TrEMBL record:
Domain of life: Bacteria
Enzyme category, top tier: oxidoreductase
GO molecular function: oxidoreductase activity
Taxonomic lineage from the root: Bacteria, Pseudomonadati, Pseudomonadota, Alphaproteobacteria, Hyphomicrobiales
Entry EC number(s): 1.-.-.-
Family: Belongs to the NtaA/SnaA/DszA monooxygenase family.
Domain Luciferase-like intervals: 19-365
Name under which the protein is recorded: LLM class flavin-dependent oxidoreductase
PANTHER family reported in the protein's UniProt record: ALKANESULFONATE MONOOXYGENASE-RELATED (PTHR30011), C2H2 FINGER DOMAIN TRANSCRIPTION FACTOR (EUROFUNG)-RELATED (PTHR30011:SF16)
Keyword Heme (UniProt): no
InterPro entries with a match to the protein in the record: Diverse_substr_monoxygenases, Luciferase-like_dom, Luciferase-like_sf, NTA_MOA
Alphabetized Gene3D superfamilies for the sequence: Luciferase-like domain (3.20.20.30)
Alphabetically ordered keywords of this record: Flavoprotein, FMN, Monooxygenase, Oxidoreductase
Length: 416
């Protein structure tokens, strides 16, 4: 058995990550507000020995310019901390990670909420720190517009430091540029000491913040070379903050479509792609590129030159690089992007998908993967019953949990 084993997270998204997942013949269109649906997904992932489940969150309709049926099916859903608190009572081992923004929260309240989830779950909670890059979210909090990228990260650095101090029971009394906190938390540490810190920014500011604060980093990369470059860059920054390479686990997103044969898997993918209306694909692409009028350009023409965004800088750069590298038209890029929102997609048999994951894992481009099923529960079931056993057969993934807390699953130190 391999001494080093990959980590696996399940990235939950109601009906699935493909933009047209809600149109799949077997989709549960109101999945976002069906607790039994989420319990089933969590239990499937736990039975397959996943390290964690992860809930993204945005305080606004990020894709509000997409047609109403798609918007409704993809946007309805529970507030994630409430959802994970319910799932904590329905599971025993799997980690529970949620997004919460440093732009629209205060450190004391957020630290208290996640510390509560951590205790409720017996030490299985994690916080995915985001700075929020959508003008739509900003409008919901009385802001006059999206804060500049550098300002959002300056606030996030102070925010993360205050939260870590509160979780680690150090004296409060913080009086900084953005926040003032007087008291310590009224909640004791959980069995894992403190919630796991997760980060996903890929800009220079984002990678620097991750090197300072993160235990886990989610990332997006299409090619092995992109994944390897990100991995080496981030791991190389840790020493400046007195940290070791193994202190941070890097888990790129992957959207697998698996079947008994390559042809069957390809047919499953092609069928999903045929469900994407062009206007929906272009609108989704526009929202991630932070451009409002992409639809005015010829859909079979190239992506135009775009100004640098104050929104999701790293995702914009990833999409533009792919368009230029592969010579894709707007239509082709939109259809590709709609399948996994810029993340790596793998289509094939269990053995072929395991080969791809193993190559990136053993090649030093990943410590594990954040699995993004195209539609739920179908592709999660396929991955859990086909790919996970193949990884276990190769000694690349656990056969059972070794501990009870998320830090134990991930091989992370307990905070001092």
């Amino acid at each position: 058995m391999s001494a080093r084993q990959m980590k696996l997270g399940l990235f939950l998204w109601a009906t699935g990550h493909h933009i047209a997942a809600w149109r799949h013949p077997d989709a549960h269109v109101t999945a976002g507000i069906d607790i039994d649906h989420y319990i089933q997904l969590a239990r499937t992932a736990e039975a397959a020995k996943f390290d964690m489940i992860f809930c993204e969150d945005a305080a606004g309709l990020r894709e509000a310019n997409i047609n109403i049926a798609s918007q409704t099916s993809r946007s309805i859903g529970f507030e994630p901390i409430s959802l994970l608190s319910a799932l904590a009572a329905q599971t025993e081992r799997i980690g529970l990670v949620s997004t919460a923004s440093t732009s629209y929260n205060e450190p004391y309240g957020l630290a208290r909420t996640f510390a509560s989830l951590d205790n409720l779950s017996g030490g299985r909670a994690g916080w995915n720190l985001v700075t929020s890059a959508s003008p739509i979210e900003a409008a919901n909090f009385g802001a006059t517009g999206l804060r500049p990228h550098a300002d959002r990260y300056a606030r996030a650095r102070e925010f993360a430091a205050v939260v870590a101090s509160l979780w680690n029971r150090r004296a409060a009394g913080h009086d900084g540029e953005s926040f003032s906190v007087r008291d310590p938390l009224d909640i004791p540490p959980s069995p894992q000491g403190a919630p796991v810190m997760v980060q996903a920014g890929a800009s220079d500011d984002g990678k620097d913040l991750a090197a300072r604060t993160a235990d886990v980093v989610f990332s997006a990369a299409q090619t092995f070379e992109e994944a390897k470059a990100f991995y080496d860059d981030l791991k190389g920054r840790l020493g400046a903050y007195g940290r070791q390479p193994n202190d941070v686990k890097i888990m790129p997103g992957v959207a697998p479509i698996v079947a008994a044969t390559k042809a069957e898997a390809q047919a499953k993918y092609d069928a999903l792609q045929e469900l994407i209306p062009d206007d929906v694909g272009v609108a989704l692409l526009s929202s991630y590129l932070s451009i409002s009028d992409l639809g005015r350009y010829p859909i079979d023409g190239p992506l135009p030159e775009l100004p640098e965004s104050e929104g999701m800088k790293s995702r914009q750069a990833l999409v533009i690089e792919q368009a230029r590298r592969d010579g894709l038209s707007i239509r082709e890029l939109a259809r590709y992007f709609a399948g996994a929102r810029g993340h790596w997609r793998v289509v094939g048999t269990a053995e072929q998908i395991a080969d791809e994951l193993q190559a990136r894992f053993e090649g030093g481009a990943a410590d594990g993967f954040n699995v993004m099923p195209s539609w739920l529960p179908g592709e999660l079931d396929a991955f859990a019953t086909r790919v996970v056993p193949e990884l276990q057969r190769r000694g690349l993934f656990r056969n059972d949990y070794e501990g009870r807390t998320l830090r134990e699953h991930l091989g992370l130190k307990r905070p001092v």
